[in-house]
């Protein structure tokens, strides 16, 4: 979602963005409020698996939902997923390349640079863009073209992808919603990617899981998302051997 654009001098656009993102709770989340996460007892040393095996390198490439807007260092979604993977014994390192305010066009421009500056080819890319496109009401055709270009580049490089999708609020009209929401399942099928359909599913609309701006998840919200996304990451990493090289 748009963090820096929303709060860095564009107050009017921010207000509109909040309204749109609140509507996403109707468009893509559970109709009933999500229950607050149950307290988790501190794990004992015996319950934590020690990371083993070859290092798995994952690139988290997205916007403020990956960057950890409004959170302390180490509290972002990529951090939470990495911690859960390592706690499960997966020797994974996630490089956080989330940039607050990025549209799909901005991501398209910097993807190759981000990949080329990793220490090696990643075993998996988490790709999460599109929220700022819908806030700006960018044409779904443009968003689709940008997402297609990024997935084509990753496919060309032989890098598996886990897409974390986005949904448009219903107040943008049925035509826009239908065109926008179809982008992620269509491209996931086309490029044989794993898809988590809506990154804020079960979180947006619940004040206990969102920051005061009602746009970005708080630490508890991030934990909720990580609980749902991490098994998909783990499954995808297990599906193929390391592609280091």
UniProtKB/TrEMBL annotation:
CDD domains: Lysophospholipase_L1_like
Domain SGNH hydrolase-type esterase: 60-223
Domain of life: Bacteria
Entries under InterPro entries matching the protein: Ester_Hydrolysis_Enzymes, SGNH_hydro, SGNH_hydro_sf
Coiled-coil parts of chain: none
Pfam family, any one: Lipase_GDSL_2
The protein's name in its UniProt record: Arylesterase
Natural source organism: Sphingomonas mollis
């Amino acid at each position: 979602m748009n963090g820096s654009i929303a709060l860095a001098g564009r107050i009017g656009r921010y207000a509109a963005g909040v309204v749109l993102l609140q509507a996403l709770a109707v468009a893509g989340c559970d109709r009933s409020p999500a229950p607050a996460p149950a307290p988790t007892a501190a794990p004992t040393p015996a319950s934590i698996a020690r990371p083993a095996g070859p290092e798995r390198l994952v690139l988290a490439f997205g916007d403020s939902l990956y960057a950890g807007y409004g959170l302390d260092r180490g509290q972002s979604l990529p951090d939470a997923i990495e911690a859960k993977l390592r706690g499960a014994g997966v020797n994974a390192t996630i490089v956080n390349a989330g940039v607050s305010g990025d549209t799909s066009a901005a991501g398209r421009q910097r993807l190759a640079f981000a990949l080329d500056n990793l220490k090696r080819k990643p075993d998996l890319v988490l790709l999460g863009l599109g929220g700022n496109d819908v806030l700006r009401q960018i044409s779904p055709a443009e968003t689709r073209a940008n997402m297609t270009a990024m997935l084509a580049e990753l496919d060309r490089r032989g890098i598996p992808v886990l897409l974390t999708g986005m949904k448009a609020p219903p107040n943008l009209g049925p035509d826009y919603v239908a065109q926008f929401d179809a982008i992620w399942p269509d491209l996931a099928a086309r490029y044989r990617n794993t898809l988590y359909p809506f990154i804020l599913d079960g979180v947006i609309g619940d004040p206990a899981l969102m920051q005061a701006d009602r746009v970005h998840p708080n630490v508890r919200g991030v934990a909720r998302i990580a609980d749902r996304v991490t098994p998909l990451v783990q499954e995808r990493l297990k599906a193929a051997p390391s592609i280091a090289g």
